[in-house]
Specification:
By secondary structure, this protein is mainly α. It has five helices and no strands. It is found in: Membrane.
Length: about 140
């Protein structure tokens, strides 16, 4: 089961859903406390009154819909063309673990230099998977 590129993909999808739960578990009470009525909102900027700790969790949820799109494409491609070997699977799992750590850092201490380092390491994983797929192309 863990010998498939698709399992790390599923893990990141599940983590994104966990972040969705965390986002709404903090956002809804904060909106109620700030007396924000979503039905009357005209602009997203009205959410700026929410505490930073609430907004950074929502920001992370949004981040999980940005760069991970490349991850999903690479993992699916690797799986379909048969380049889902142990090395690519290892890099896929490393990417997922780094994104979970990135989420936890952003959702708690939100120390930007640490977040950037984690993000950079995760991005290197994507580069490695992409390059290994390019190398595997038939000549």
């Amino acid at each position: 089961m863990y010998q498939s590129m698709m399992v790390p993909l599923l893990a990141l999808v599940c983590w994104t859903l966990v972040m969705w739960l965390w986002m709404y578990a903090t956002r809804i009470p904060a909106m109620q406390k700030a007396k924000i009525n979503p039905a009357r909102m005209k602009e997203k900027s009205e959410m700026d009154v929410l505490p930073r700790s609430v907004r950074q969790i929502a920001d992370n949820h949004n981040h999980l819909h940005e760069q991970p799109v490349i991850f999903y494409a690479l993992v699916t491609y690797s799986h379909l063309v048969g380049v889902g070997d142990a090395i690519n699977i290892g890099f896929a799992w490393t990417y997922v673990i780094l994104r979970v750590i990135h989420s936890l850092v952003q959702g708690t201490i939100n120390f930007i230099p640490l977040r950037f380092g984690i993000y950079a390491l995760a991005t290197i994983c994507l580069f490695v998977i992409a390059i290994r797929n390019l190398i595997a192309l038939p000549v």
